[in-house]
């Protein structure tokens, strides 16, 4: 018998995480309302609805060599692609990954950009004697996955660092210009043609392969979404409307919050103890950085209220972020009859040994509750965007494709399946037939090169 106290904790969790269709429809409606408020005026909503200045997405006709640079994690990547039009598409792709020395992540901006520019210089040097550019200006798409206030397609000021970066003198500076200056200092003859976010890159890479892609979503360490908006539907947009009539909006939906979100005591505590309390509430409910941590908090509560895990030393169980989302994914997908993988993960990560089969089943259920809530909320966010742009609603016959990138979506099958089935549940069988979700992996590299190409002055 599983101890009654533990069962109660799980029952309360199930109740507090419940996200039935009616509630998800409220979440979608709240997301749509916040999107409208954010488009109306600067600071009109918790979600920033950043104008990306990307008004042209790739068509497949792009030709020539383009560079891309992807900065957003511990590694950065440089990429050179040869685009060869509709038939051949990407004729050649070369890339190099470089890890960033930790001291540069908290040093000063000119050191970081200098390091990046010198790596880029080395990469450009092995174009060799092929004369790829024959006097033509090299162009680069720069994926910079931190919040940026865009000022044009190729410039924008850094709002704040996130993840492991904290370089004070870069905040408020134009990151496109910083890179451009560093490249000039290092003798790299190249122009920053586009400064984008990974979500926008995912949208572009998706569109390149499928012209019906209208939304790009990141479900990885963090979460965000970008989509194609009608430029005339953005009241805060100043200046001449783009010829295409379209504008890609980077929603920054991670900062969405609403009283209709199913938030538990565990989420509350996680947020209170986080680096950014009160911020990124939606992201904290759905993204890969947090799911394992939520499960750990539930297990700790069970350990403190029952003897289910036996006499264990709780030091590990009290260590924040010790249980990672890939661990809960492995437990959730355990198909061995005696849940051997669950037993191993509990022992390895949390020093919880000698669990009964019933206890392991309960742990799997906790993973399922937390992950289902996450996937269902992500689906509700997507539905909010679809409704905002009049897609997959009665009378709309168009096909709508959502390009999704990120380790959570890519590797966590239960999450992915739940997200897809929830979309059908919310949109209805009929409408969801014209909606498709596609894993789109190279947004931050190829996507940036494609946007540079689509906005090239040389085309
Ligand atoms: P990032 O979001 O940092 O650019 P990724 O898109 O590669 O990086 O996503 C990495 C995140 O994906 C990890 O932080 C983790 O939360 C999640 N993830 C990676 N592997 C798995 C897995 N096997 N199961 C579930 N989640 C995973
Ligand atoms: Mg990424």
From TrEMBL:
Entry-linked InterPro entries: ATPase_NBD (IPR043129), Hexokinase (IPR001312), Hexokinase_C (IPR022673), Hexokinase_N (IPR022672)
Pfam families the UniProt entry points to: Hexokinase_1, Hexokinase_2
GO cellular component, one term: cytosol
Keywords: ATP-binding, Glycolysis, Kinase, Nucleotide-binding, Transferase
Pathway: Carbohydrate metabolism; hexose metabolism; Carbohydrate degradation; glycolysis; D-glyceraldehyde 3-phosphate and glycerone phosphate from D-glucose: step 1/4
Enzyme Commission number, as recorded: 2.7.1.-
Family named by the database record: Belongs to the hexokinase family.
Entry protein name: Phosphotransferase
């Amino acid at each position: 018998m599983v101890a009654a106290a533990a069962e109660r904790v799980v029952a309360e969790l199930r109740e507090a995480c419940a996200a039935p269709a009616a509630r998800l429809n409220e979440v979608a409606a709240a997301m749509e309302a916040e999107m409208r408020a954010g488009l109306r005026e600067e600071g009109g909503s918790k979600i920033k609805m950043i104008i990306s200045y990307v008004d042209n997405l790739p068509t497949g006709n792009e030709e020539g060599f383009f560079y891309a640079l992807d900065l957003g994690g511990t590694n950065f990547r440089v990429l050179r692609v040869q685009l060869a039009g509709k038939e051949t598409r990407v004729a050649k792709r070369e890339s190099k990954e470089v890890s960033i020395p930790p001291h540069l992540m908290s040093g000063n901006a000119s050191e970081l950009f200098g390091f990046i520019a010198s790596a880029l210089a080395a990469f450009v040097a092995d174009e060799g004697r092929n004369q790829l550019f024959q006097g033509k200006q090299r162009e680069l798409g720069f994926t910079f996955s931190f919040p940026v206030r865009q000022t044009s397609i190729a410039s924008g000021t850094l709002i704040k660092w996130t993840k492991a970066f904290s370089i004070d003198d870069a905040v408020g500076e134009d990151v496109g210009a910083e890179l451009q200056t560093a490249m000039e200092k290092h003798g790299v003859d190249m122009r920053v043609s586009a400064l984008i976010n990974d979500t926008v890159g995912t949208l572009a890479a998706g569109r390149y392969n499928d012209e019906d892609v209208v939304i790009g979503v990141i479900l990885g360490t963090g979460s965000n979404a970008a989509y194609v908006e009608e430029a005339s539907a953005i009241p805060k947009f100043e200046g001449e409307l783009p010829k295409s009539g379209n504008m890609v909006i980077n929603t920054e939906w991670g900062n969405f919050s609403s009283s209709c979100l199913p938030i538990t005591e565990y989420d509350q505590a996680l947020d209170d103890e986080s680096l950014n309390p009160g911020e990124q509430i939606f992201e904290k409910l759905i993204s890969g950085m947090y799911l394992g941590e939520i499960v750990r908090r539930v297990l700790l509560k069970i350990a403190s209220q029952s003897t289910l895990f036996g006499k264990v030393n709780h030091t590990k169980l009290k260590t924040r972020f010790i249980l990672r989302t890939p661990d809960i994914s492995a437990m959730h997908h355990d198909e061995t009859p005696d849940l051997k993988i669950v037993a191993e993960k509990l022992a390895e990560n949390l020093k919880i040994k000698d669990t009964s089969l019933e206890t392991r089943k309960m742990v799997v259920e906790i993973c399922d509750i937390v992950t289902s809530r996450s996937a269902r909320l992500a689906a509700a966010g997507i539905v909010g965007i679809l409704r905002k742009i009049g897609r997959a609603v009665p009378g709309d016959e168009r096909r709508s494709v959502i390009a999704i990138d990120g380790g959570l979506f890519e590797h966590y099958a239960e999450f992915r399946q739940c997200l897809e089935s929830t979309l059908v549940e919310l949109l209805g069988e009929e409408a969801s037939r014209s909606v498709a979700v596609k894993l789109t992996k190279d947004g931050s590299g190829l996507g940036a090169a494609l946007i540079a190409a689509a906005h090239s002055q040389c085309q």
